[in-house]
Amino acid sequence: MNSNTHVIQVTNVSPSTTSEQMRTLFGFLGNIEELKLFPPDDSPLPVTSRVCFVKFLESESVGVSQHLTNTVFVDRALIVVPFAEVDKSFAESPFLAG
């Protein structure tokens, strides 16, 4: 795992949690470059849990954010782990297409 990752994966996110709530929570721990919540806020799909990816500007925020693991947010205990970033040149490789 890349110890210099800037990305965390947050699982066990309550279905009623919004992107803005996640941005507020993790924004206290560092500057957020990007935040993605799946399924998106406007998704018509019924879900029992959501997943959030947060990319911080500073890699130090990843270590700090892991301290929120088991913190109850809305109605679920969050699980926060570092997430390895994929090199964009690898992700765009023709070998991965179709």
UniProtKB/TrEMBL annotation:
RRM domain mapped to chain residues: 7-81
GO molecular function, one term: RNA binding
Residues annotated as signal peptide: none
GO cellular component terms, A-Z: nucleoplasm
Name recorded for this polypeptide: RRM domain-containing protein
